[in-house]
Structures are given as C-alpha cells and as structure tokens.
C-alpha cells in the first residue's frame, strides 16, 4: 500500500462518504489505497503515530487528508507534526475547507499538494504523477469534474461494521441549482444526478447487507419529482416487504415544492421511517432577496403544515440568525411563525461565513463581522450587536437542550406561551445568569431550573411538578390540533427522533 486517505470525522458514527468516493475512484491505484478515519478530539500525536504505523507496515508514501470546517484546526496540527517527524511523506489535501481562499491557509502552506473541488479523477492522476513522475509542477490542482457516469459509486466500501454501527451517507445527486449566498452549494449553479438505476442497485445491495439508516446528502432531494418518487418507492417497497425490520431515510427538502404526487408517496410512510431537513433560514422577503434565496414563504409554510398534519415524517427545520439585513425583531417573528407550524425540531443556526461563499459581498454594507477562526461564526452585524449575538448563541444552545431534545415536550408549550421567541429569550438570559454555562448542564439540574423559572413566572408549585413529572415519565404530548400519530413500531429511527414521534 502506498496511499492512505484520512480524515477526522465529527463523530465516530459519521462514516466519511468523501473518502470512500476517492478510494473507489483510484482506478489502477485502488488496491494500493487504504482509508484510516479518526474522530475530532483525538490527540494529535496519537493520530500521527497511527498514520506512521502504516508507513512502517506497508510503506505508505502519500497521505491524503479530507479537510472540512469541523476538522481544519486539528488537521492543521496533524499535518504540521507529520511534516516534522516524517518530512518524506507526501501530503495531499482536499475538501471544501481548502477549496477556496486557500493560499492564506496554514495547512495549505504545510502540505505538498492541494486538490480543490471534485477529487474523483484529479486525485488519482496526481498520485500517479507523484509515484511515477514526472513530478507535478504545480502545488494546487483544480479538481476536474468528470461525467457523472464515470464516477465509481463507493457504497461497497462501507464495511459490515459501518453498516451495523454508523450512519451511512448516500447521494443520488450532487450540487444545487439555487444560489443562497451563505451556502457553498450556491457555487454549483446546477445539480448533477447519478444514474438512478445504478444508484438504487447500490442501495439494494446496502439494504441486503443490513443497512437500515440512510442519510441522503443531496442538497435538494425534491428537485426532480420523478426521481424523488422512485427513491421513496424504493423505501416503501422495503417497508412493505419487511415491516418488522424497517428502514429510516433522511432527506433535505426545499420547502415550497411539494407536488401532490410527492405528498401521496410521503403520506404512505409509517412513523419513524422518514425524516426531512427543511431549510427556511428566514421568512423575511427582503433578507431572502439580499442573500439571493428564492422561496415562496406561504407555500413553504403550507407544506410544513401539511407534512405535520398529513404525514408521519419527522421534521427538522432550519432557521439562520445573523443574515444581512435581519434584525432581532424580524428573526423573532420568523421564529414564532415557524413554532406555530409545530415542526418536531427547529435548528436555530447562527450564520457562518463558509470559505468561498458569496455572502462576503455584504460585509461592508451590512457590517458583517465574522470570527476569523473556524467555524467563522458571525459575531455582529449592522442590525445585531455582539452582546445580542451572544444572547442568540445561548438561545440556540438552550433551545437544543430544552426543545429539540424532546425531553420537555409538555413543559415547552407553557414555557413558550403566546410569544415563543420573547419568552424563550427571557428564559435563556435567566438560565445563563444562573448557570454561567451552556454546556454540561445535567438533565436533572436543567429540569430543576426550568421548574424554578416557571414558578418565577407565577405557575404554582404543584402545576410545575405535575408537568415536569409528566415529561420525566415520557408521556406523549402531541399538540391537540394535530392528528394522533401512531407510535413507531420497531422503527429504525434514531432515539431522539423516536422520542419526538411519540410526543
Ligand atoms: S441553502 Fe439549500 S437551496 Fe440554497 S444553495 Fe444551499 S443547498 Fe441550495
């Protein structure tokens, strides 16, 4: 073996699809290529030691790193140490975090080569040159995008252990035709589908090997309805054939495009089988126009309502605070509008400036101040000052703990009352004052603090205890105006989603 592909995943459960694509497409070098994944948080020296063990055992000479926003800092340390202890190792970088504005990056300066963009054909070409000459003259190699049919699908590289223990990422298409300026996919300008039959054959084989949890990374699953329907039908067939051994599939949707045929298919899924991640980001039309996001807000709201009322899918809906031109009042109104639609989870994200994204054009006119360190979170805008952005950050964290966790299903509506944003912000400010922390708050302590807050708002001790103990008992709390939902039976849904579906 002469080539090692490596990355630091955000969690052990995330199996890297990118590395597997690269390995699958190494062609004549495939047999000479191995993967070694790590998880962020590991000691730099331990990672370097393990990488070097490959060199000692099998003579690895090239190490390729997949660099992402979540691992750039740690990967930089690994590359720096590797270059000190084994300067003869050739380091090649790739991945979205080093594909744009890379000249100034320390990791790029430390590495020997960089492949920007798609690496499927460019990485093996580069490795061939490194191994057999002539020595590549350029350090930076712009990834060539091959026809989709030329890309070898990587799914057979998921091991039986991956299938049994990790989330399997899959993609039926790459790219996105929309141009939301905060998003890296805006640079794609279009989407490229893989041949559907070949893709579904790979899904069939994964399913036959025991895979039950499929996470689609397609940026807009419902772009081509005919394709979406075929993929959904694949899962419906699996559910019909194996009702006691169900599948769970996760897709990202654009919210304002849900034709009837798609709705009919979605409505057939039992609880615990389907999850949609839906980007709303902002309900403010002026902000949407500023960041070039095309979205019919009324249609989007109507579709989310339909999904909550007529389907059993688990909904995770995204909002972003800190977009140019959006003040707290506008964000609050969008948040309240979304809470009223009652999705299972609201991801309260804070804007990040991803390298290469066009949002930078608003920096001066809208006073955008970003943290210079990954993940480049927004610190202030002309509409939201730094202390307020800090409060929003804490709101986001506490929202995950209290709302998205599903642990306070009965208590949450009381906490939110008629003004969800304002009430939760008041709770968040108070909670931070009490704890001076946003992490490591044990569930028992959090429940005690939620109870204390409710009593401060005038709720009686007995009423507080009653509602909190109902939550502790895990009793269902589906809102009264939504139809009852069947409990997911033997569902493959992850625990947190299953908790929401019984609520
Ligand atoms: S936010 Fe979603 S719809 Fe917009 S460009 Fe990115 S992937 Fe496409």
Automatic annotation (TrEMBL):
InterPro entries, per the entry: BchE-like, Cobalamin-bd, DUF4080, Elp3/MiaA/NifB-like_rSAM, rSAM, rSAM_horseshoe, rSAM_sf
SUPFAM superfamilies the UniProt entry points to: Radical SAM enzymes
Region Disordered, residue ranges: 478-503
UniProt cross-references to Gene3D superfamilies, sorted A to Z: Cobalamin-binding domain (3.40.50.280), tm_1862 like domain (3.80.30.20)
Domain Radical SAM core intervals: 162-401
Keywords: Iron, Iron-sulfur, Metal-binding, S-adenosyl-L-methionine
Domain called B12-binding: residue spans: 1-137
Cofactor(s) recorded in Swiss-Prot or TrEMBL: [4Fe-4S] cluster
PANTHER family xref list: ANAEROBIC MAGNESIUM-PROTOPORPHYRIN IX MONOMETHYL ESTER CYCLASE-RELATED, SLR0320 PROTEIN
UniProt protein name: DUF4080 domain-containing protein
Species of provenance: Collimonas rhizosphaerae
């Amino acid at each position: 073996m002469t080539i090692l592909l490596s990355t630091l995943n955000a969690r052990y459960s995330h199996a890297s699809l990118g590395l597997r694509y690269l390995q699958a497409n190494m062609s004549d070098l495939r047999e000479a290529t191995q993967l070694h994944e790590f998880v962020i948080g590991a000691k730099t020296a331990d990672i370097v030691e393990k990488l070097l063990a490959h060199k000692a055992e099998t003579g690895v000479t090239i190490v390729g790193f997949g660099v992402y926003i979540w691992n750039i800092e740690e990967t930089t340390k690994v590359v720096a140490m590797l270059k000190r202890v084994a300067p003869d190792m050739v380091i090649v970088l790739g991945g979205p975090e080093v594909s744009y504005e890379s000249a100034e990056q320390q990791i790029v300066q430390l590495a020997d080569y960089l492949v920007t963009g798609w690496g499927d054909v460019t990485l093996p070409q580069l490795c061939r040159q490194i191994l057999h000459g002539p020595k590549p003259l350029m350090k930076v190699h712009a990834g060539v995008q091959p026809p989709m049919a030329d890309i070898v699908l990587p799914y057979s590289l998921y091991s039986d252990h991956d299938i049994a223990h990790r989330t399997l990422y899959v993609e039926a298409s790459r790219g996105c035709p929309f141009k939301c300026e905060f998003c890296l996919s805006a640079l794609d300008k279009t989407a490229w589908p893989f041949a559907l039959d070949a893709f579904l054959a790979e899904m069939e084989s994964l399913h036959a090997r025991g895979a039950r949890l499929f996470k689609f990374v397609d940026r807009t699953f419902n772009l081509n309805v005919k394709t979406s329907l075929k993929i959904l039908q694949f899962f419906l067939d699996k559910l019909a054939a194996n009702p006691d051994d169900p599948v769970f599939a996760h897709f990202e949707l654009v919210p304002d495009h849900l034709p009837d045929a798609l709705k009919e298919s979605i409505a057939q899924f039992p609880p615990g089988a389907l999850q949609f991640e839906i980007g709303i980001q902002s309900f403010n039309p002026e902000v949407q126009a500023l960041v070039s996001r095309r979205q019919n807000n009324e249609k989007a709201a109507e579709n989310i309502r339909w999904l909550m009322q007529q389907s059993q899918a688990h909904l995770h809906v995204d909002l972003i605070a800190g977009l140019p031109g959006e003040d707290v009042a506008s964000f609050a109104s969008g948040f309240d509008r979304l809470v009223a639609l009652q999705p299972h989870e609201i991801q309260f994200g804070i804007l990040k400036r991803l390298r290469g994204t066009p949002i930078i054009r608003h920096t001066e006119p809208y006073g955008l101040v970003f943290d210079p360190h990954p993940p480049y979170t927004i610190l202030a805008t002309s509409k939201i000052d730094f202390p307020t952005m800090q409060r929003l950050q804490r709101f986001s964290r506490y929202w995950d703990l209290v709302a998205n966790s599903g642990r306070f299903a009965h208590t949450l509506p009381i906490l939110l009352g008629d003004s969800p944003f304002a009430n939760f912000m008041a709770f968040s400010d108070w909670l931070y004052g009490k704890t001076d922390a946003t992490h490591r708050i044990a569930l028992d302590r959090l429940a005690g603090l939620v109870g204390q807050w409710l009593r401060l708002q005038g709720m009686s001790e007995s009423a507080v205890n009653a509602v909190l103990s109902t939550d502790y008992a895990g009793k269902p709390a589906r809102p009264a105006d939504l139809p009852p939902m069947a409990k997911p039976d033997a569902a493959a849904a992850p625990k947190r989603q299953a908790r929401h579906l019984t609520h």
